[in-house]
Amino acid sequence: MNSHFQVLLKWLGAVCTLLLAISLLPLAQATVYDAELPEGLMHGPDLCAHAACKDVMPQATRFSQRMGSPQYVQAFGRAAGAAANSAEQVIGYVFLSTDVVDIPAYSGKPVITLIGMDTKGIITGVRVLKHSEPILLAGIPEKALLDFIGQYIGQRGDAKLEIGRGGDGSVGLDAISGATVTAIAENQVISRSAYEIGRQVGIFTTAARPPARFTAIDERLNWRKLQDEGAIGRLVIPAAEVGVDPADGDYIDVYFGYLNTPTIGKSVLGEQGYQRLMQDLKPDEHAIFLIARGQTSFKGSGFVRGGIYDRLQVRQDPQSFTFRDTDYLNLYHVEPADVPQFKESAIFIIRSAGFNPAWPWTLNILANKRDANGVKSFARYDQAYWLPERYLEGGHPVVVTAKPAWQLIWQGQWWQITVFVLLLAATALLYSQRDRLVRASTRRHKPWISRPRLAIWLISVGFVGFYLKAQPSITQVMTWVHSLLHQWRWELFLSDPFIFLSWWFIIITVLVWGRGFFCGWLCPFGSLQHLMLKLGAVIGLKRYQGLLPKRWHDRLKWVKYGVFFALLAVSLVSMETAEHLAEIEPFKTTFLVGVWNRSWPFWIFIGGILLLSLFSERPYCKYICPLGAGLALPGRFRLFGLKRKAECSTCHACAAGCGSHAIDSAGRIDQTECMLCLDCMVMYYDDHACPPLVQERKRRSNAGQALTRIGADGYFVSLDSLRNSLHESQRPARPQQGGDGA
């Protein structure tokens, strides 16, 4: 029997090697995955010299250079039905998504998309130029993304486009099966880009914003009070965020605020400074102040007279406002005594009737960011500002802002999230009562454990795995490591609520109970393997079921740790290669993509694991799973382990029945390998199964002594301690001495 298992494991290893080799093939087939885009396309004046603008605007004969804010290009051509010699006219607009919005997809990076829209607001074409979604390489072809974006052609740029069924005036779009988060992010990219450009060029109009009217409040506040009420904003860019030495302090630390209102203006500038400023301002002009410290200047090192302060911008949707030298005023003195130290200060004037201080706006600073490889790029950082409502007549107007993609996902799946949280909570509550459950069980009859756990396995496989596709994976661990090393974005992890909740649950329970709670009770693929073992017993294979010899297990269990560290190391060099090698996890094929959507090596791989599972308990979990290895390491620091007795060092009863091979010859439990099935804990209290208890029970029965209850230490409570406690309870209570001597 043992030789059969050795042959099966060798065969499984060969399949793994074949699978990994084949999984690398899509790297050569990818066309837009992490494509290298020229700098001119991303930031140059002539977008269409570097991008195939005609692909998204087929009727155009020529294109302008970039214009506007956010930027777009005009497409020129002849109107449909016009004579060949008729004059060219503007027939539409082409724009790059990253010029308009910066919405990360599941990889944490945006899908860079070229979009065309005619003068009526109809989307004429969409083309993905670059994406960083590994799932669209390994498992889901890029064609799925191309088919998805094809649904936008012919739709209005201001239409309410939603993933899923339409309704309430919305247009429903088919998602990308297995990559829903990517689809939702790309939907926002295309929809918001088209709407912003359409609104800028006048295709889509919005209701006029009533002018701001200030209240008559005129107070003198110190710096702390101004900050507390939100009259002064603060934007801090840490040095590590842009790849410079943190020893010299923050990259930049900027305080800013709006000066036209009397309280803020006089508190910051003083009475005379405020009066001089207001005398110089025209009716539609607005003043903001900035003071800053740090390693760089908000003015920019390359500023020349007549030029633009290219690092600084104010944005109030849909417009952006930049500043020239004529918009700059010196700020020589800041009035409050408690103002923080600063290195530079300035007043900038917004000269536009389009700016409305009653509505929120953001201060944007463009920084030179250096990544881990020393490559420089531009990164935009912003901080929202909204004038405190007590300075506005009628308070703040009602502002409807687009919700982030992750919030829409959570709201759209509220009932699934509720059920999922209840499953996690119920399982944790059940396991927390393990001492009661094992005491109510025997080695031959343990319904209070086996039945709930079987139900949890079924729900985990069916609901969590196949329906929610919420199988945690080593790829998420690699993503976290990269985020910690480069840039942490909560939005990336919040975009999949079930994975987000799963990982917080895993982190907590691993530190409390160890790896075995998740792996043994809730992991969808682990549960599927155990259900296959149960199926094998039902269909008559029980007599063939068994385990590898302990000596083989103790060697092979280290393989999964090698896989874990190898994947982690490769991910630091090439994340896409690591994503392909992570196909050694069968989770994506089983739950996310579906076996029927993969090629034959994946079928053999999954089939081999499930075939082995008919004969042996959780073979993949024991010997290959990198996720299990990753969870086992912090699990060494768990708070609670399983109980042991002194006799366990010589008794092998529990070890003989341990399906995880987690108990050694000295009776010690390897908690990193234990799946917390609780079989050994049932025996711990079972006086018909645990040899020390069996001997004590027989000794007492032969001596005619009573059988007492079994204590928490796993032994019968001694008769002497029972007699003493009985005598104590029967001893009459001493009369209390009264205060009056009675």
Automatic annotation (TrEMBL):
Its main location: membrane. It comes from the Bacteria. The keyword Transit peptide does not apply. The chain crosses the membrane at residues 414-433, 454-470, 498-523, 558-575, 595-615. Keywords: Cell membrane, Membrane, Transmembrane, Transmembrane helix. It holds the Pfam family FMN_bind. SUPFAM superfamilies: 4Fe-4S ferredoxins. This is 4Fe-4S binding protein. The keyword Transmembrane helix applies. It is found in: Cell membrane. Residues 105-197 form the FMN-binding domain. PANTHER family: ELECTRON TRANSPORT PROTEIN, ELECTRON TRANSPORT PROTEIN YCCM-RELATED.
